[in-house]
Amino acid sequence: MTDQFAPRLIFWETTAGCNLRCIHCRRLDVADELVPEDLTTAESKALIDQIVGFASPIFVLSGGEPLLRPDIFAVARYATDRGLRTALATNATLIDRPMAQRVVDAGIRRVSVSLDGARAKTHDTFRALPGSFVQALSGINDLRAVGMSVQINTTVARHNIEELPDILELALSLGADALHIFLLVPVGCGVEIADKQTLRPQQYEDVLNWLYERDQEGRLEIKATCAPHYFRIVRQRAAAERRELPPSHARWQGTAATTSRGHPSGLHAMTKGCLAGSGVCFVSHKGEVFPCGYLPARAGSVRERPLREIWEESPVFKELRDPELLRGKCGICEFKRVCAGCRARALGTSGHYLDEEPFCVYEPQAWRQAVR
């Protein structure tokens, strides 16, 4: 396996249990508590051993809600002691000052917190829990008080598109180091709200251009997720404006560089668009391996085969690594090696992960010539 296809991000769904019921959740079967199928502590540590045996990715503890696991800090400490750059993805509603300190003590490098609105009503409606906005802000403040780097994750949909500028300002006021914008993917619960909440393709384009402009300001780390066509926009605009590519597109090189707020910058894995199966993989709470958390194309299980074998030999992963297999507009697009389209959105819309990205307005040069 070459460095070109080394895993840069590995997400582990620590549990299917969660204390929220988000209306856009990629899971349909969210439990109120831990479930018997969750990897045990021993299995979790074995997974970490497998990862460090062949790669050095950013290791993200996700969920569900990972803080429901009583062993989460012991597992995080094990990962950091084994040399993994470890991050925690949480809704932050369970975090108080003592727990924030435990996050630090576990060696976790960054905590990502979901904020889906600049106001309580917007966020709480999406998260299906009144008071979750205030609780999340409190958790973020406790994390910042103990010096933890915080990343804000926002899923953009029709209900909050007008609040994006305010969400950015909120992230800055909270002392966040990063704002990651997610475009809604019609999977899990997201299928049920797709008709009412999915942006139109031109709205996606407008949001991504706005994001590019904010990235030029350099006030915090900006990233578009599940929006690979952002990388086309960046290159188009950088060329038109005779700019260098934004610093946020540089691959982490293991240096001591820091963010504008002084935290280590080795938690950025952006180099191109869709990395599902080529730079990213997702391990479910019961050990199943997928290209990403939004792409339900099973590649194997760590309870059956070593992760390295799955990563290197899975037919699903091999297909996703070959842009020549892309179909429709994506297959003939001059930006396909930069963007590749969202494979999860393609699957959710047309039924196959190699089909074209359904929410991209760009017409490839070959496409325009063919229809003349």
Explain what the structure shows.
This protein is α/β, with parallel strands linked by helices. The protein has a domain at 3-249: Alpha-Beta Barrel (TIM Barrel). The protein contains 14 helices and ten strands. The chain has helices spanning 41-52, 72-81, 97-105, 120-127, 132-145, 164-173, 190-197, 201-217, 229-240, 307-313, 315-320, 328-332, 343-350, 365-370; strands at 9-13, 58-62, 85-90, 110-114, 149-156, 178-183, 221-225, 280-283, 288-290, 300-301. Strands 7-6-5-4-3-2-1-8-9-10 form a ten-stranded mixed β-sheet. Helix 1 links the parallel strand 1 (9-13) and strand 2. Helix 3 packs across helix 5 (132-145) and helix 8 packs across helix 9. The radius of gyration is 19 Å and the shape is globular. The N and C termini lie far apart (42 Å). Mean pLDDT is 88; it is low at 250-258.
Query: What's the β-strand tally?
Result: 10
- On the 0 to 100 scale, the average pLDDT is 88
Strand and helix order? EHEHEHEHHEHEHHEHEEEHHHHH
State which percent range the strand residues make up.
5-15%
Rg is: 19 Å
Helix/strand/pairing category: alpha/beta
CATH superfamily of the domain at 3-249: Aldolase class I
Largest sheet descriptor: 10 strands, mixed
Describe the strand arrangement of the main beta sheet, using strand numbers: 7-6-5-4-3-2-1-8-9-10
**Amino- and carboxy-terminal Cα gap:** 42 Å
Share of residues in helices: 25-40%
Q: Can you identify the CATH class of the domain at 3-249?
A: Alpha Beta
The CATH topology name of the domain at 3-249 reads TIM Barrel
- The residue ranges in which pLDDT falls below 50 over 5 or more consecutive positions are 250-258
Number of helices: 14
Overall form:
globular
